[in-house]
Structures are given as C-alpha cells and as structure tokens.
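[job 0412] stage=fold_complex status=start
inputs:
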Amino acid sequence: MGIVSPGFTGRRRGGSDLPPGQYLTRDFPVLSAGPTPHILTEHWEFSIASETGEVYRWDWQALQALPAEDITTDLHCVTRWSKLGTDWKGVSLDTLFEDVETGADFVMAHSYGGYTTNLPLEDLLDGQAWIAYEYDGDPLAAEHGGPARLLVPHLYLWKSAKWVRGLVLSDTNDLGFWETAGYHEYGDPWKEQRYAGD
Amino acid sequence: MERTALRRRLTWQVGTVTEIRQETATARTIVVDLPDWPGHLAGQHLDVRLTAPDGYRASRSYSIASAWSGQGIELTVEQVPDGEVSPYLVEVLKAGDPLEVRGPVGGWFVWKPEQPGPVQLIGGGSGIVPLMAMLRAHAAEGSTTPVRLLYSVRRPASVIYVDGLKELAASDDVDLTFVYTREAPPGEPRVGRIDADLLQEKAFAPDDELTTYVCGPTPFVEAVADLLVAGGHDPSRIRTERFGPTGGPR
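[job 0412] stage=fold_complex status=done
writing structure:
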C-alpha cells in the first residue's frame, strides 16, 4: 500500500530507539489547547476522587512531604517529536494511591484550565506514572505544565496532563479532551495509536 | 455530505498535486485533488506522508488552508530550516506528483459557521494558515459573523495570502490589521509586536460570546494569550495552536 514520493530521499533523523513515525528533537516543544494557566503553589491542590465519591486531597506542602523520585525517561509526542533521556522529579502515583480504596478500572485526569484525558488505572500504577514538579533540576515551568503535571511516559505525551489538579476514578472508559476530538483512546506510541481507530 | 465525523477511522489516501503557488520566499501553497476526501472543518489539519524508494517514511501534520469546497484541499507549507518533510514540499514537489495524506484531524481549533458570537483571529507568521481557512469558510458561507484578524509578520514580504486577505478585508464583516514586527510598508508608522495597547485598539473586547483563535510560534502564542487573559478575556474562550521550538529548556 502507498506510493513512492518522487524525489524524496529523507534525512532519517529517526533511530532504532524511537517508536515508529517519530523523529528526534533536542528542543522541548509546547502544545496546549488554550492559554497557559499560571497556578501559584500556595493555591495548588491535587485530589483523587474514587468511584464512590471519596476524595483524597494534597496541597503543595503535602505533596512536597511525600517521598520523591528522580525519573529519567523518553517522551513521545503524537505530533511526532520524541525527546530522549529527560530528567524529572516527582511523586509516584503508587505513593498517592497507597490509601485510596478503589475497584475502578479507569481514570479521568483533570487539569487547571479545563483539560481532561482518560487512562486505564493500571497504566498509572507499578512505577509507570508520577506527579512531576521538577524538570532538568528546576521547578517545572508553567508552559510545560508547572507547578505540577502528570507524567505517563509510556503513552503519547497528551496523556501526561499538564497543570494536573485531580484524578477521577470510574468504572467506564469515558473520553477526554483530545480523545473526543479524534485522537486515540489509549495512545501507545510503539503501536502508533495516534488517532481513533489506529 | 457530513462535514466531519470526529471519531471516524482515518485511512491514508493518495491525491494528486494539481497546482503550486509560491506565497513568499519560503512558503508555498499546494493544491491537492483528493477524490476520497471526507470534508473538513476550518482549522483542522492533516498528516502528509512521504515515502523514499527504499521504503523509508516520514510524516508531519499541516494545517489545511482551504475551506471545504468538495474539490480536495490546499496546504500552505513554510520551509523549516533543517526540516525533513517541509523542504521536500516547498522545493521538490511539483504539479502532477502524487501526495499521500490522512485526515482531517483535530476538533478543537476549528470554527463552525453556526457558532454564535464574533470571532477574533490572531496569527503570527505561518500561523495564518488555519485562520485563513476560517476566513475562507466565513466568506464561502456568506456569514455575517463579525471577524477581526490581527496578523503579525516581520515585513510586508512575509505576508502569506496577501491578495486573498485584501480581498476578504473588503467585506463589511471582516476587519484586518497587519502588525509588522521588523519593517513596515511606506505610510505605516508602527513597527513592533502585538501589545496590550494594540489589542485594546484593534481586537474585540472581552465578551461572553467571543471566540479567539491564536496560532503561531510558541513564544508568540504564549505572549498573546497571556496578554488576552490579562486584558480580561475568559481563558476558556481562547483557543491556541502552537508550533516550533520554545526557546525554553533544552
């Protein structure tokens, strides 16, 4: 299937450690659907709401008091750039979920500014996801989701909700912002799950 | 025909380039005949896929410049220095060549003619492309929705769609302001970036019905969106599309 593009040879900026269709960037592009929210840490709050309505809350000090991890990971954006070996600091979702009682299979992440994205709960646990608040040794800049963002590096980056303010657990896999606008409901970069039906 | 189904499965299709128009020294418009195109909304984008003789492939997303007309699509591509796909599209591709695309994609940075309320468009550089699709859709529909465009460019020679924009600006419902950041044409005294005073003077005031679309390089969009929010605009009524490097952390 497909065609040969007359005169195209390619510059081959990919590599064997990149998912299919990705190219390597050293920059850190910003993609957001609206203005960048500027949230002061003293006003910041993060919550997890269970499917029964029980709500667990952390303010900035409570988050900082939790054990943090240094994370070195690759990022893959659905717009096809990948950035390798990025350094973050944050709190594992395993830590935040320690006392949360739930039987739900799905999560909707909610952000300051109104953004949402849906994930299976199992993709947030077992050392796969963090609430990250430092990038490359500095506090996370607002344009990259600061003061804190979700970081789920094994999925396309739109799942790593910037300016995250809470997770809502659910028995049903409802669709978030980009998922409703035509993007894939799961978003595995290695399977090139970019758009609905991929 | 249905304009778009947001969660329709997207498949690759091969179109034929029927025309190429040079817009500026570094940007050109590619007209593609696509017999199986499902239609699109103004502001949506598509993926272009190039395949080398040995099977190597590269894809990138581009905003669609045309309003849905039933004849296929138009893309306007600005050459990215050190790019992989844009140099091919801007320098190599010619009329008669096949082009493989998939889309349309994106259901947020779009304008629908039935949408109530005025429309403020703010574009920087090649960020004009999806805004032009909106202006063309507005004209094609004969919409009387008031539209204002602020178009920030370095110099007169950087203006994409100069003739088309002047034509559209003749409409009573469309108000067009060029903002020159480096060099203005004769008789135009102001040179500089979009600032709070300019927004106050030329853009719509905050309004519950207003939708604002900002598209351009990341630092441009960050600056303009921050100015709008500081000026009292509801962030939820501002839609943004950013491209290119941040100049931020590397």
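[job 0412] summary: The two ends of chain B are 46 Å apart (CA to CA).
[job 0412] exit 0
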